[in-house]
Specification:
single chain, 320 residues, alpha+beta, 2,3-Dihydroxybiphenyl 1,2-Dioxygenase, domain 1, eight-stranded mixed beta sheet, 17% helix, globular, oxidoreductase
Length: 320
């Protein structure tokens, strides 16, 4: 079985309003679904992405207002990178500075320019300009116009203390290919590679073990085209002795979860059915959506959640 690339990255945040303001206004993404953590419906699950929330464009959050800060280290995805147009890194450096976001110097690796920074909770993010470009259509807003906007996920970086077992799972169980090495950083790619289909493995034997809490990644999800493929994938993983969850209904996709040997929680998520199954495309993210099994508790859940105000950038009718 081979994945075609990244499906989404899910992280833990702090205050949900601050989280939404940053990802919608500063980064120019669209909130494509406002729902709750199905395992803990007292907190939101916010999905950010392109105009329709296509797999590979998605960054999602469990924002707990009083969540303690996590610790970056091994056993985690320690950097989440987004893809931007090749000529846009300078624009982004200026845009982030005007928003009060401190950034690194622009670096170059593998002919890609990279700008690194942190979100309000300390989550490490990067913007990467791939030399061959990225044809994916972005979400267009007044604050982040289409010519500079994020195209989707570029890659993730997994920090591990040892490389062999992690590399073995990426190639043997996810179908990725080893493409290159730069010192203690190894790159693996799905399919033909390119933005949205890459993962870097950073080998740091002396780094502390990471602690998953606010400002860290909870899990990294990889794409499966449909449920039959996912079921076959699960059977293959179980046959190899991997501890895998049962298939879980996440309403907008189906999921299985397991850990790679270095400790990072991975997910295989289906491309189907998508985010427009319970609200029109133009209205994505505006209303709180609950799965059928939580709908009877809507009043109680709504009363528990903090109020969330969406900026006009998330509303196509207002933007027009």
């Amino acid at each position: 079985m081979k994945t075609s690339g990244l499906h989404h990255v899910t992280a833990i945040g702090g205050d949900p309003q601050r989280n939404a303001d940053f990802y919608l206004r500063t980064l120019g993404l669209r909130l494509v679904k406002t729902t709750v953590n199905f395992d803990d419906p007292g907190t939101y699950h916010l999905y950010y992405g392109d105009g329709s929330g296509r797999p590979g464009s998605l960054m999602t959050f469990f924002p707990w207002r009083d969540a303690p800060s996590g610790r970056r280290g091994t056993g985690q995805a320690t950097t989440t990178s987004f893809s931007v147009p090749e000529a846009s890194i300078g624009w982004w450096k200026q845009h982030l500075a005007s928003a009060g976001v401190e950034t690194s110097q622009v670096t170059s690796r593998d002919n890609e320019e990279t700008l690194t920074f942190q979100d309000p909770d300390g989550l490490v993010l990067a913007l990467v300009a791939h030399p061959q470009g990225d044809p994916r259509e972005p979400w267009d807003t007044a604050l982040v116009p289409a010519e500079h906007a994020i195209r989707g996920l570029h890659s993730v970086t997994l920090s591990v203390s040892k490389e062999d077992a992690t590399a073995g799972m990426l190639t043997g169980d996810l179908g990725l290919s080893f493409t290159e090495q730069d010192g203690n950083r190894l790159r693996f790619s799905a399919g033909d590679g390119g933005p949205g289909a890459m993962v870097d493995v950073l080998v740091t034997p002396d780094a502390p073990r990471g602690l998953v809490a606010a400002g860290t990644v909870h899990h990294v999800a990889w794409r499966a085209p449909d449920e039959p493929t996912q079921l076959t994938w699960r059977e293959e993983l179980v046959d190899k002795g991997v501890q895998v969850t049962s298939v879980l209904d996440r309403q907008y996709f189906r999921s299985i979860y397991f850990r790679e040997p270095g400790g990072t929680l991975l997910e295989v998520a289906t491309d189907e059915p998508g985010f427009s199954i319970d609200e029109p495309l133009l209205e994505l993210g505006r209303a709180l959506k609950l799965p059928p099994w939580l709908e009877p508790n809507r009043e109680q859940i709504s009363a528990t959640l903090p109020k969330l105000r969406l900026p006009s950038e998330n509303n196509p009718e207002v933007r027009a």
